[in-house]
Task: structure prediction
Amino acid sequence: MGEKQASADGDRRIGRRALLIGGTAAAVGSAVLARDELARLWWRAPGVEKPRVQGAVDFRGAQWVAASDANWRRADRPDDYGIDMVIIHVTQGSFASAVKVFQDPGHGAAAHYIVRKDGHITQMIRELDVAYHAGNRAYNERSVGIEHEGFVDRPEDFTDEMYAASARLTAGICARYAIPVDREHIIGHVEVPGTDHTDPGEHWDWERYMRLVRKVPSASA
Result:
């Protein structure tokens, strides 16, 4: 009993000291978080936000089709949130069905781009803004999401045209934001922490895809 009491008292004394130190650290941490939050919100002041042109696209040749406002959050990336990742998705359905659900305010999710089997690219959310595509807030804020028409269990859906067009798109994104062209920064939805998704699946040819991305002149090293 005596040893247990002494031990408990010792722990309590250490706990008080740690609490004081921890409290100071927490205060400093709170100040840093507050500063970071202010830095992210600076653009909300009148006249600060970057100019926007209705229907403008970030990738030349993409067709603009707006997603529902409920499926993304207005931002001013990369000034408020740095972009250092591209996330590859598969729609698990047709191109038309993906566009439809991304325009549905009740869906709660959308990606920046959809790549069709024939290589056509549709942009639905500006890269400036945060798309709800990864199922992880931090990853949403730091990434650009690209959907690909098809099903994960049908390798024939991943056509030559799709791979080539998507590789050009990803290379352009990487060049714009100085994102390294590697598998730490170009990942599948399945690799996002906390997700229950499996896309792009085992039939997505990562070796081929990364080789194509690196071949594009605008790709970063």
